[in-house]
Amino acid sequence: MAYNLPAQHRALVLDTIETGFEVKELPTPQPGLGNAVIRIHAAGVLSYHREVYNGDRQYNFPKPIVGGVSAIGRIAALGPDATFLRNGQLVYVDCVIHGRDNPDDLFLTAIHEGLTEGSRKLIRDVWRDGNFAEYAKMPLENCIPLNEARLCGRLGYTIQNLMYMCYMLVPYGGMRDIKLEPGETIVVSPATGGFGGAGVQVAISMGARVIAMGRNETELARLKEHVLKGPQNASIETMRMTGDEMADAATLQAFGTIDAIVDFTPPQGSKSPHVRSAIRALRRGGRVSLMGWNENPMVPTVMGENISLKGKLMYERHDIIQFVKMLEAGLFPRGKDFVDTKAFQLEDWKAGLDAGAEHTGIGKHVIITP
Description:
The structure is a single chain. The chain is α/β, with parallel strands linked by helices. The chain is 28% helix and 25% strand. It is built from twelve helices and 18 strands. Strands 3, 5, 6, 9, 10, 17 and 18 form a seven-stranded mixed beta sheet that branches. Helix 7 links the parallel strand 12 and strand 13. Helix 5 (165-177) packs across helix 6 and helix 8 crosses helix 9 (274-280). The longest helix has 13 residues, at 165-177. It is globular. The model has no long low-confidence stretch (mean pLDDT 97).
């Protein structure tokens, strides 16, 4: 079957950590059974992307590789077994790839090879490249349809701003995993980074009351101001972490009943006691979603208070579908009240990765536009 695809396309290729990225002309990927080729319009940049690709994080992935994680684009060509997706359709291209015969073999596109021999085989031999490119080949199940008429027409989102999904989906997956309910109170910690800030916005849109923890008082104040520009019923409190476990627990307890916690401790804060402070403030039967790197969240009350601790990596496919329904229903803010996006072309990749590390927190995001 002939496809209307160019013979070549441009992509951001990392041959070695030492040489860094280079924009190269590559053969355009071709569709086959179980996959689609996407014309990429916006590819997300994470706050730690620079650390991944300069070697600071020492993540394992094969090289050479086209960088990038999740993206939004249009379907340019489909494999013959596609039954629902259509050419030209706007889709969210998810970065979490699972083995089809063993979903426990999973990896994050062009970031980490995963933890199993199966996941390493998939990234090495089948789904190596990411979405910092004009075209990308991805599994059909990773292409989530977006109602363009509703999102970009009636609700007024741009494709670039919709890419903020790649941050928001992570906390949404953690909150769904611990079954956060409307009206409950959840602690988001730390709330001043990319995932924590997005988590505050997501929890508010889910109808929860949020207590946002962080060390940066200026960013906490900006976070609260950003939230209060949104829904009139938003309930948000902020708390500066002091590092004193018992004092911070007492401060949290003063806010009243706390039902849940979602934590995004970065690697450099792995020894922070803030998770233990929050757990001490939980009600009996409270739930904790651990999505970061905290080394010691345990406190003696976990058993006595029937507290559940659950680790969560990213989210599931059904979480993405449900999140898109929330977005299409108009449950999130719009325009600058949603996100301030900075866009960079492939040639400006270095500035883009630098901006990704700095332009972060609630309502801030960076993208590459191939």
